[in-house]
Amino acid sequence: MAVVMDADRIGRTLTRIAHEIVERNRGVDDLAIVGVRTRGVHLARRLARSLREITGHDIPTGALDITLYRDDLMRHAVGPQPLVRRTEIPFSIDDRKILLVDDVLYTGRTTRAALDALIDFGRPRSIQLIVLVDRGHRELPIKADYVGKNLPTSAEESVQVYLQETDDRDEVVLQGGAA
Amino acid sequence: MSGPGVDAGSERQAATALRSRNLLGIADLLPEEITLILDTAEAMKEIGSRSIKKVPALRGKTVVNLFFEPSTRTRTSFEIAEKRLSADTLSIAIASSSVVKGETLVDTVLNLEAMNPDMIVMRHASSGAGHLLSRICRSAIINAGDGMHEHPTQALLDAFTIREHKKRLAGLKVAIIGDLLHSRVLRSNVHLLTKMGADVWVCGPPTLIPTEIARFGVRATSQVNEAVADADVVMLLRIQLERMEGAFFPSLREYFSVFGMTEARLKYAKPDVMIMHPGPMNRGVEIASEVADGPYSVILEQVSNGVAVRMAVLYLLAGGTEHETAA
What we know:
The complex is a heterodimer. Chain A is 28% helix and 26% strand. By secondary structure, chain A is α/β, with parallel strands linked by helices. Chain A has one domain (8-72, 82-153): Rossmann fold (3-Layer(aba) Sandwich), CATH 3.40.50. In chain A, α2 links the parallel β2 (31-36) and β3. In chain A, α1 crosses α2. Chain A is globular and about 45 Å long. Chain B folds into two domains: 26-151 and 304-318, Rossmann fold; 152-298, Rossmann fold, CATH 3.40.50.1370. The interface between A and B is medium-sized, with 24 and 34 residues.
């Protein structure tokens, strides 16, 4: 088990991404942030805070639960259904530039589900993907626009993101499969 | 956009799954399973407020709605819930089916099963019809009302509506007033509310109070004022003339004068009392129009919430097709 990002590093990384967002979008006009439950929502809120500190503007922020859009739903005959939680997008996404936030980018399947879910809410002008960690092993043609840290991993390893809001600490941990 | 956060209102730990693959009655559910259904329904409710009111969760699943008794609300509610989850649905009204040609329930259902549906939602005039089907069917069975036995999704949507307003169920005084004897809604609600720790009072003419109802942990009275006193929730039940064989009370007018819910009687309840009715209402019999349309009434909210609760039940049961049925 290795800590690959500590609290300071996570904080600096999010600040850096916030600056990149402002630079690439030439400001924050028409931007909105949507976090993928659970930890993507916490990251989205932190980014919204950073963006307000940098620009003085409030960015609309929402939470997306992708459970009902998962491609492995109902594929297992036996077993409990994944827990569904509330989606809260209290603004129209039509013609906005949506910043989609998740903690870890891996196979890309969660992002695929999130894109489908978002499109059901309207027609955004664009969607940009933000992830704290990109650990590789994509199974779909999906690429992040903003990456906190590129982390080469093997398929046996797992990446766990812990955040204050739910886990009482800020930390990204790589857990070895074989070790 | 209003509403509390995701975790608001859950006073108990939710289960992670339902143990049974069928929903036959509230009697079979644990409090944690009830909480799981209500929490899931909170998430489902948001879907109904979108402009595209549809998610792909039950894509490719076939649901048969089999209604052997008339129903507008429940059947429509199930159909909308199924469509919002992208299931393929068909509804069979019995007047146009082979039942009128003399086919038995079991034969009708076995023939439908031969076409390989995943779930069957059934309403039937005989108590226990759902249990019978659950023993012979591969499909998951959802009871949409069986005789005078249970109507589990109604009790779940009632609980959801109460929880939305009061943020809890435990410790609330709930008065259920009306035709207790013939009511499956009563039985399901008594099971649910007592499991969740509510203080349940039932009230009606002595002839319409089931014997030994106190064994279910509720208090029975024929004094309306006693039932309503300090109540957080007053739930009216329809006088079911179609199920009455014999004279249970002298006249509907007399019933209204003794038991009908009026503004005057409501003054004994808590100031923030909720008025509920599972429908269809008999205005001027169990409930005065001024109360049904009044500020405390959540009767139409109950109908809206019914769709979210049924979506939750369909979703949670659709996963475990091969699940062991809990003993």
